[in-house]
Amino acid sequence: MSSGETNTMGDILATEADLLGIIKEYLKFQEFEETVDCFDKECKGKGKLISKPHVNTVRNSKVHSIQKDLLSSFDDGDPKVFFELWTENIPSEIKDTDTEAQSLEFYLHIHFTIYPLRRHPGRHDRAEFEERISRFKRYLETRGAALSQTAKFLPYYALPFVPDPTVHPSFKDLFQDSWIPQLKDKLEPFLSGTLKPSNTPRLLSLYVSSIGTQAMHQLHLHMIESDRRIASYVRKLHKIAELVDSLEATVSGKMISPEYLQSVFVRLFSSQMRQSAVQSTDFTRPGTASSMLRASIAPQKSREVPMLPSLDYEKLKKDLVQGPDRLKCLLLQALRWRLTRSLPGEQRDTVLQAFISNDLLERYSTKQKTLLQLMRSKNEIVRQYMARLINAFASLAEGRVYLSQIPVLLKPLMEALRTEEKDSLTRENVLVALQKLSLRRSQQTAMIAANLIDWLVDELQDSDCLSDYTLQYAAALLLNLCLRTKGKRKCAENARHVLKVLTDVLGHENHEIRPYVNGALYSILCIPSVRQEAKEMVRKQKLEGKLQVFTVIRRCTDVLVSWRVFAEPILSNQHLISASTPMTNGS
């Protein structure tokens, strides 16, 4: 074997040993002790080497460097470098909740504020000191505001307003020789305890790194595409502006009348301005129209969206479970309005994330009484308002993800469908929520297993007694379930009944349900036994002079086209909250 081949083989064995070491490190991190023993035995039996765990010297040296830079900037009195490192490397959960960290941060701000007075007493740079005082004021008004209720910190809130703190009796301790060493003695152990090297196994670090790289690549591609489109639109609009300039020049040459040009511009801007404003603007004045066109493509200042005040979710959940019915109704309505009446975008996303992060519907709870028990309340209004809240959750994509993680959700909703009165608002909201949830595969599977298809077919059999709203969502829900192979097989179990109900519903006066019914028919007719049953029905109805089913089968190809056009999923938040259109998978 040549030396080159020997080196290559050695590299492969070293890499293999390193990979096996990474796997063993991860198994030990997850405490799979028995698996680790078996892994060791099998590797030994096959003669495979396992590399020893690596001490991550790079990670350790980085932590050491950060700690060294923090202490160095502390000694130099450099607040800019220090607080940049502090913000980047001290975890938020420690900075925001740990009282020791908050106290230390407060005294650190004082240290950097009075640093010029300590270093050059009597001859310090006044401008530099004023800048540090301003920075300290900003801290007291923001992060430091929470400590104003603590007696030991209260005197220091007067520091920015004292002309010469060095002679003020309240601050004499700050200028003692021992004050800085004592503060540093607190800082050093805090940094050592907080800036610990991570013990994350290499396999997990590699995975997280690869996922992050892929995500960044996708974001980069999206940004490039967005920039390309924006540049294209800007070029087009600039061409329009140039065209307008040319037209204005033509006016000055008496080639077309100003009245004609005015009428062109009125039509051009009527969609952007009030009609009265358009009519009163003199577009024939040189520069007017082109300036307005250029202004229309200028970047708009983003409007600040106010954030809603936070809530005590633990008390809310307790009152919703244990409070009187009237209080339950008021709280359920307030929570729903908080979500549905929030501004689309950041504000609504924040509200929904607050609901989810505080586990409003208690998806992981093992308690016997949770909020979902309100669906079984004896009070009809409580049941209705709870169904409305669930429907509001289901109207948003993240809300549907959250609801899908509640394993016991479907049972009370199905009970409500079967026990509530036909004209009940509770039943209507439950049906709409289920239809939206049926966009998720896991929920489709659970609904099919719960025999929801049978219930929907029986419900549609009596379509003349249903409201248009209920009829539309029931048909859309049936379509979503029929798109699944399990759903098609479920329909095939009673094919004659399903086909008869669906073909009858096609004749309903509400034409908006036809795309959903056509889609469901097209889907189940893919099953050979259903097609055979349909042919039997055709033969029988031909004898009776009824060709409805025959017509349906003959038009199946056309049905697919129309269904795809009309039953595309409507997933934008502004449509979902209004719940005016059922959502279908359309695939």
TrEMBL record:
<dbReference type="InterPro" id="IPR011989">
    <property type="entry name" value="ARM-like"/>
</dbReference>
<keyword id="KW-0206">Cytoskeleton</keyword>
<feature type="domain" description="ARMC9 CTLH-like">
    <location>
        <begin position="65"/>
        <end position="196"/>
    </location>
</feature>
<dbReference type="InterPro" id="IPR056327">
    <property type="entry name" value="ARMC9_CTLH-like_dom"/>
</dbReference>
<keyword id="KW-0966">Cell projection</keyword>
<feature type="domain" description="LisH">
    <location>
        <begin position="447"/>
        <end position="547"/>
    </location>
</feature>
<dbReference type="Pfam" id="PF21050">
    <property type="entry name" value="ARMC9_ARM"/>
</dbReference>
<dbReference type="GO" id="GO:0060271">
    <property type="term" value="P:cilium assembly"/>
</dbReference>
<keyword id="KW-0970">Cilium biogenesis/degradation</keyword>
<keyword id="KW-0963">Cytoplasm</keyword>
<dbReference type="InterPro" id="IPR040369">
    <property type="entry name" value="ARMC9"/>
</dbReference>
<dbReference type="Pfam" id="PF23138">
    <property type="entry name" value="CTLH_Armc9"/>
</dbReference>
<dbReference type="GO" id="GO:0005814">
    <property type="term" value="C:centriole"/>
</dbReference>
<dbReference type="InterPro" id="IPR048957">
    <property type="entry name" value="ARMC9_LisH"/>
</dbReference>
<dbReference type="InterPro" id="IPR006594">
    <property type="entry name" value="LisH"/>
</dbReference>
<dbReference type="GO" id="GO:0097542">
    <property type="term" value="C:ciliary tip"/>
</dbReference>
<dbReference type="InterPro" id="IPR048959">
    <property type="entry name" value="ARMC9_ARM_dom"/>
</dbReference>
<dbReference type="InterPro" id="IPR016024">
    <property type="entry name" value="ARM-type_fold"/>
</dbReference>
<dbReference type="GO" id="GO:0036064">
    <property type="term" value="C:ciliary basal body"/>
</dbReference>
<dbReference type="Pfam" id="PF21051">
    <property type="entry name" value="ARMC9_LisH"/>
</dbReference>
<protein>
    <recommendedName>
        <fullName>LisH domain-containing protein ARMC9</fullName>
    </recommendedName>
</protein>
